[in-house]
Amino acid sequence: MIRIEDVIAKVEHNRPDADVELIRRAYLFSALHHKGQKRASGEPYLVHPLAVADLLAEMGLDEVSVSTGLLHDVVEDTLVDLDTIRSYFGDEIALLVDGLTKIAQISNLSKERQQAENVRKMVLAMITDVRVVLIKLADRLHNMRTMQFLKPEKRARISQETLDIYAPIAHRLGMGKLRSELEDLSFQNLYPEDYKRLAKEVDTRRPELEAALERIISTVEHRLRENEVPFIEIQGRVKRLYSLWKKLKKQKISIEQVYDLIAVRVITPNHKKYCYLALSVMHDTWTPVPERFKDWIAIPRDNLYQSLHTSVIGDGGQAFEVQIRTEEMHHIAEEGVAAHWRYKENKLGTADDNESIDELRKTVEKLLLPLVENSEADGDSEDFIESLKLDLFPKDVYAFTPMGKVIQLPRGATPIDFAYAIHSEVGDTCTGGKINGRIVPLRTELQNGDVVEIMTTANSKPSRDWLNYVVTSKARNRIRHWISEQQRTESIDIGRKLLEKEADRFRLSPKKLMNNDTEMKRIANEYGLGRPEDLLASIGYGKTLPRNIIAKFLGPEKFAELDPEKHKETRLETGMKAVKRLIGLGEDAIVVKGVDNLLTTRARCCNPLRGEDIIGYISLGKGIVVHNKRCKNVKQLMVNKDRIVEVEWAKSDKEEIQSVRLLVTTENRTGMLADITNAIAEIKTGIRNASASVSRDDKGLIEVTVEVFDKKHLDRVILAVEQVPGVIAVERMNAN
Length: 736
Ligand code: MN
Hints:
about 15% strand
């Protein structure tokens, strides 16, 4: 078992200034909380975080990463919560642990193979810090190394996930050694039969292959010395089983036809000229295989890998590969980003850690980007440069259904978007949502990795409010569609009632009118409408007067004969009109531009006065409601642009009287009320009502309702009142 002091010694060796006390505290904390837990092997659980910390120390990572390695499973597997981690170890470690915990949760949820691509994207989206990837990879490596105690199904699932998600990430980060080990372990656990067969096949050849390698290596050494090309080391390797297996399967060839079954690697001092010199010696020694030469020094691969590769035909016709690279290139090929980190550290010495983390992060983002952008796992992306222009994971959020299905949504999406993404029906009947088991408001923004459960109620309907917090067009369109459907249904209903009422007034059977489909259709067509329902909707919206429908139905003669207006007593009629005027409903006062004879009502909220700027809003069942343009409600109504109509005051010879309430604030003295009413009376204006009270701050408050003809008239009244000594302010009040 690894001891914590060994880990600390490694960190101190790589980073003399490291705060190793942090690592000790993390170790004690982890030991305390994992106490009593066992791994599948029966060993104490602590073995695992300790091994992960050791791998991280080996990579040369900082004390924060190593401490996080010790703590990485605490939140996931013990009762400790993130806040506790934060209070003991600070924000930085808490953030890293949180990222790792979320990835663990995602992995538990998504057991379906076909989701690998989405899950990979999501895992990447979780990576708010480079160190999260490295710690996760170390975690996975140790688990893969020690998985022999798990059941075969579980081994297969974890191995598949490793192949789908973590090996490609390691590859992108240039971590060749770690990637190879992850792949071979996955292969072994996922396809045990294939693995055994291939391993046996290679093993039977191994003595022969190793003998060949030995001969080749000594030839290489000899030839390089002879030509005075400096080198540090010559290595030999037999091709790894997983990549051999893939090659055999992909190219449908036998093991004898594999060019790079064995390879030698020449590692030169740190200058690329030595690589090219070595190459020329190799090509001078053996015959190169045409088109097998690759110069990844001149053109590095996306993941920063640099090397020369060539295949040659050796003595006895055996083909093998030669890789040539400098020592620095070799470190990068083996350790990728981690080496990059270490190099930076060594070179910069006292460099601010945050700065180098930042820089490293940028590198990692560049490296990982193609994994996010391309659907192919193999990452030798050609448009790497192009991809640099894009931000890293800005656009999408990945959330889960409780069954583990991934739903991809734009950023800012809410449970309602999620509900509509599952199914329109689910969206329409959605009544609530749970995120990670907790009930949340429907406007809550979803975060990566959230598990979202939608609660529905049969017959429940979308709400207009939802439009304010959905971001997907699917949700928006469905809600809009539903609202207009609903409005239409309502207005057809209202229209039908209004038409029935009007028919009644003409002593006409409503049924006789409504059920006469041919006539209704004809009239609808006259209005440019397709169906009778459209006509009813138009009545409901107040665009068409029911009276006019009756007129068209009856024809002019019959209409004139039956018109109830004509049978009314004249005196009563004038009486009605007078009352209407008094309550501000002068139906003749307003004309609608372009169309006439429409039902208009003054809005109660602002009670517009003749002469003021006005605007009309088509309202269900009320026809056109006329507002003062400055009314605070107008702004909201403007959202429904198609229901706004232009209106203006009718030219009228008749003087229409309208009541307006004024609130006058005055000094508190006796006689104020009398002075004000006198001032109003003096300009020949009627007063309907007046009352006085005292405000809490000892001001006089006088409410007076005056009868005015129009805005000019009102302005005169206000001016007159303002001039009364002791008056502080005059305000117009709304009608209700
Ligand atoms: Mn772990």
